TrEMBL record:
Entry's Gene Ontology BP terms: amino acid biosynthetic process; carboxylic acid biosynthetic process
Family per record: Belongs to the class-IV pyridoxal-phosphate-dependent aminotransferase family.
Species per Swiss-Prot/TrEMBL record: Caldithrix abyssi DSM 13497
InterPro entries, A to Z: Aminotrans_IV, Aminotransferase-like, BCAT-like_C, BCAT-like_N, Class-IV_PLP-Dep_Aminotrnsfr
Source organism superkingdom: Bacteria
SUPFAM superfamilies with a match to the protein in the record: D-aminoacid aminotransferase-like PLP-dependent enzymes
Keywords: Aminotransferase, Pyridoxal phosphate, Transferase
Protein name: Aminotransferase class IV
GO molecular function: transaminase activity
GO CC term (a single one): cytosol
Cofactors required: pyridoxal 5'-phosphate
Secretion signal, residue range per the UniProt entry: none
Length: 279
């Protein structure tokens, strides 16, 4: 597998990152995951802009990544992924390597930029039949709107879901549903599409935005509104939305069936619309 590190393409197993890297020591970094369908990136510009916004918020010494698009395309090509149905590229930027200190390193310290690409398969069975989720208290920090690599609460919650036979954990803060560990969440009730508004506790998902646009095109009313635990459990349909999960119906939460316990019509309509948009 060919990866990218600081301007160079090299075999992934030859990538060498300093033990002083602030990504390693402090999780001081940002990342993006971009999906390619038949060699075409999905919403590349939006991913780059989200990364650049994050770099500004974290006060990185470089907040523009003009190389982003080219690196992604090159990784697809160098790994011979042009012909596959779907692939992902992971792109990470950290504040670079410097002797460990809570202070920022000197401003001339180069950021560490690392990326790799691989073929990616959708979880078709889950997307067709729906899957389970669990609810967990949101114990993440106050800036979940930034796509940082500090994901320990997410991985712990996700593993808890897997251990319970579910595919996602949904974070609940003060009784309100925020998002999943690696996805956004939406609910259908009375034909209306509800999704939590963008606050500091929710990542502005690229797929979420695309699905909102698809709703509007299909004349489905969209409400970006707070979703309580009760509203969620009494919804007609629940779905998770994201680059990797695409649209996956959630038919069971903490063991309780949602609606009929089968993927609902609006979720299926949006799955079809998203497939058309990406393929
Ligand atoms: N995760 N919320 C969180 C916490 C996420 O980590 C993600 C994506 C999303 C969905 O965002 P988007 O539609 O832009 O992918 C929402 C990526 C895929 C990951 O961590 O692997």
């Amino acid at each position: 597998m060919i990866a990218f590190l600081n301007g160079q393409y090299l075999a992934k197993d030859r990538v060498c990152i300093s033990p002083d890297d602030r990504g390693f020591l402090f999780a001081d970094g940002l990342y993006e995951v971009v999906r390619f369908y038949h060699n075409r990136p999905f919403r590349l510009r939006e991913h780059r802009q989200r990364l650049e916004n994050g770099a500004r918020e974290l006060r990185f010494n470089r907040c523009e990544f003009p190389e982003f698009d080219e690196v992604l395309m090159n990784l697809i090509e160098k790994n011979r992924l042009e012909k596959v149905e779907s692939a992902i590229v992971y792109f990470q930027v950290t504040r670079g390597a410097a002797p460990r200190s809570h202070r920022f390193p000197p401003p001339e310290t180069p950021l560490t930029v690392y990326a790799f690409a691989r073929e990616f398969f959708s979880a078709v069975e889950e997307q067709e039949n729906g899957a389970g989720a669990i609810l967990v208290e949101d114990d993440r920090w106050g800036h979940c709107d930034l796509k940082t690599i500090a994901l320990l609460p997410n991985t712990l919650a996700h593993q808890k879901a897997r251990d319970a036979g579910a595919v996602e954990a949904l974070f609940v803060r003060e009784g309100l549903i925020q998002e999943g560990t690696h996805s956004n969440v939406a609910v259908v009730k009375g034909g209306i599409f509800y999704t939590p508004p963008l606050t500091r506790h929710v990542l502005p998902g690229i797929t979420r935005q695309a699905v909102i646009e698809l709703c509007r095109e299909a004349d489905i009313e969209v409400k970006e509104a707070a979703i309580s635990k009760n509203f969620l459990l009494e919804a007609d349909e629940v779905m998770i939305i994201g680059t990797t999960v695409e649209i996956t119906p959630i038919v069971r939460i903490d063991g309780k069936l949602i609606g009929s316990g089968r993927p609902g019509p609006l979720t299926q309509q949006l799955q079809t619309a998203l497939f058309r948009l990406t393929h």
